[in-house]
Specification:
The protein is an alpha+beta fold. Helices cover 17% and strands 52% of the residues.
Length: 192
């Protein structure tokens, strides 16, 4: 073998050897780096929360019949309180004849044992062409009613009714308005 042929073979072999050493060294370095436990700093722990969910979807049935479907953008289950704090709530209540009453609110509280609920902040209830607005609304699961003890405003087509409180019976499809009931409505005005 000539000297130039040895030289031509030696340089690529040396380069290949250096490349292999770099690859093996890199492998051991990254393996050691990845095997170290990750340390987190400045973690804030919500001591009241047992669990936080980014999205909550829940369906309630009674005797195999769907009563409501609930969705929330987030839910925080509170320790020792049997409550879930809901954000951006959307719920559909079903009447006895399977009609839908839709409710949206910015906030809500779900009792995880009784499934009673409280909705607050920009509460809007829609049923067919009727729209009800209030600041706070309650749902009683056992009676399957929604009610408000705060001012309510009910709009349907060209009619508007306001009252100090309201109850809607979802089983028997009737609405009761109480306290300073006033508004403009026609004779054939029907809420439900």
């Amino acid at each position: 073998m000539t000297h130039s042929l040895k030289q031509k073979l030696t340089y690529p072999l040396i380069g290949l050897l250096i490349l292999m050493i770099i690859i093996i060294s890199g492998f051991f370095y990254f393996d050691k780096l990845l095997s170290k436990p990750v340390q987190l700093h400045d973690i804030k722990i919500d001591t009241k929360a047992a669990l936080k969910l980014n999205v909550l979807k829940q369906i309630s049935k009674k005797n195999g019949i769907k009563e409501w479907e609930l969705e929330a953008a987030s839910a925080t289950l509170l320790k020792d309180e049997n409550k879930a704090v809901l954000i951006s709530v959307s719920i559909i209540f079903f009447t006895k004849d399977n009609k839908k009453v839709c409710l949206t609110s910015e906030k809500g509280i779900l009792n995880t044992k009784t499934h009673d609920m409280i909705f607050s902040d920009n509460v809007i209830v829609t049923y067919e062409t009727s729209v009800l607005r209030t600041d706070k609304l309650h749902y009683n699961k056992k009676a399957h009613i929604i009610y408000s003890d705060t001012h309510v405003k009910l709009e349907k087509q060209n009619s508007v009714i306001e009252a100090d409180s309201m109850t809607i019976d979802l089983n028997d499809n009737y609405t009761i308005l109480k306290g300073h009931v006033r508004g403009n409505f026609s004779e054939d005005f029907n809420i439900m």
